[in-house]
Amino acid sequence: MKKYHFLIAMSALILLLTNCSRKTTTENSSRSVYGSENSKTTNSSAPKAVSTKPIRTAVPKVIAVNDSIAKKTFDGRLYYDLEGHRYWRNYKDGKYYLFNKSMATDPAFKKP
Questions:
Q1: What is the per-residue pLDDT for 79?
Q2: Could you tell me the end-to-end alpha-carbon distance of the chain, in angstroms, rounded to an integer?
Q3: If pLDDT is split at 50, 70 and 90, which confidence band does 90 have?
Q4: Distances (CA, A) of 75 to 4, 23, 84, 96
Q5: DSSP states of 47-104
Q6: For 94, left (φ over 0), alpha (ψ -120 to 50), or beta?
Q7: What does the pLDDT average to over 13-28?
Q8: DSSP 5-43
Q9: 46 membership: H or E segment, kind and range
Q10: Which of these, 2, 10, 70, 109, is most buried using a 10 Å CB contact count?
Q11: Bigger pLDDT: 109 vs 44
Q12: Predicted pLDDT of residue 37
């Protein structure tokens, strides 16, 4: 008989300890596990991080580049890449112009 009372007492103790752990309490309970509910509102007055968009600069149509840092194509024409835009050398005035379709037929952009 003592064995049965001991087993019942031990099982009740195990159930009591496992059911009252902090891991099993819900967040919607009326009391907070880690402190008062007002502690959340005091932290909200802290300054929030403001996300800013990067400032985009305008893409220039013409740039001046030293020919020693420009790259060559297989046919000998010079070009320079700047921030994802390709500039081709005009052999008449020596400046680099932003790519457009008319450069393919313009003789000023072909190597003399």
A1: 94
A2: 111
A3: very high
A4: 97, 71, 22, 17
A5: PPPPP-PPPPPPPPSEE---TTTSEE-TTS-EEEEETTEEEEE-TTT--EEE--GGGG
A6: left
A7: 66
A8: HHHHHHHHHHHHHHHTSGGGS-TTSSS-SSS-THHHHHH
A9: none
A10: 109
A11: 109
A12: 53
DSSP designation for 3: H
> Tell me, what's the pLDDT at 102?
87
Token code pair at residue 27:
């967040």
74 φ, ψ (degrees, to nearest 5)? -65, -25
What is d(CA 97, CA 51) in angstroms, rounded to the nearest whole number? 35
Sequence letter at residue 7: L
pLDDT 10s digits, 23-73: 655 666 555 556 555 555 555 566 777 888 888 888 899 999 999 999 999
Average pLDDT of the chain, as a whole number: 80
Token pair, residue 67, equals 């020919």
Structure tokens at 95: 């400046």
The first and second tokens of residue 66, run together, are 């030293």
Q: Measure the CA dihedral 93/96/101/105, to 10°.
A: 30
